[in-house]
Amino acid sequence: MSSAPCDWPLSNIADCPELAGSGDPVAVKTAAVTYLWNWTNKVFGLCPVTVRPCREDCAQGPTTYEGWAGRPDRFLPSVGDAWPFAPALVGGRWFNITCTSCGELCSCNRVSAIDLPGPIDSVVEVVVDGEVVPASAYRVDNRRSLIRNDGGSWPRCQDLSKPAGAEGTWSVEYRWGVPVPAGGQIAAAVLACEMAKALGGDKSCGLPERITQSVSREGVTVAIFDAFDGLEAGKTGLWLVDSWVASVTRPHARSSVHLPRSRRPSVTTYESS
Questions:
Q1: Residue pair 120/143 in contact by the 8 Å Cβ criterion
Q2: Is there a contact between 117 and 87 (Cβ–Cβ < 8 Å)?
């Protein structure tokens, strides 16, 4: 499991000269975004991911993982009597990559589709047999399904003993995760700046001092240690930072209506412009 986000931009960080004078501005910024990433349940940030899909029934000889996943509610019987999957490690978690085609259950025409570990923010490139597939030839639906929309089809099998880009292989490179909202970029810049001030002993630092207090009475000293209450929830004492963290972590009431025999609509979430 990753211990820090892959990418968390900071907004207007040039407005903080104290950061440049902190001695190690990169470490300070990394610490700030790591705090925010953990406080917001590790949701935000984009990671570069490259996967090499392969149906389980294409494997030759023993494999490290064997299994079948029947999904008659989603895939067509024409795919086969069973629906294979292959595991992939993405962002520190294991996902099952399913490879199939989608027919009249979800569209008017049969298209080649593959479910990848999501959420998919954008696709960098798809390479089949060493050739880059034009971006206009595919799209992403529901932030996880890579749809071939040029009439072609995704390879059913590939030779995993060969390096990616070789003949008989194919791979998908994409950005995995949720982009950091503008509020999170500003919060990271504010927190990093205040941390830099604290390191430099700047009296204008807005972070509260969390010190040990001691009380002495009649020769007896009692020490009171700061338990850092609320820090695990992102309560730093900085209004801008705390308010943004609370806005994205507090549960929101949701309502939904389910119609019997209805299916979730397919929504295009990425398409090359």
A1: yes
A2: no
Mean pLDDT confidence for 37-66: 73
pLDDT digits (tens, 9 = 90+) for 104-124: 444 445 678 888 988 999 999
Question: In one letter, which amino acid is 58?
Answer: C
Extended beta strands in the chain, E state? 45-51, 85-90, 93-102, 111-115, 120-128, 131-132, 138-141, 145-148, 170-178, 213-217, 220-224, 268-271
Count other Cβ atoms within 10 Å, centred on residue 133: 19
**In the chain, what percentage of residues exceed pLDDT 70?**
64
Q: How many CA atoms lie within 13 A of 150 on its CB side?
A: 12
- CA-to-CA distance for 135 and 3, rounded, in angstroms? 32
- The pLDDT of residue 250 is 78
Q: Residue 251 contacts by C-beta under 8 Å, 6 or more apart in sequence?
A: none
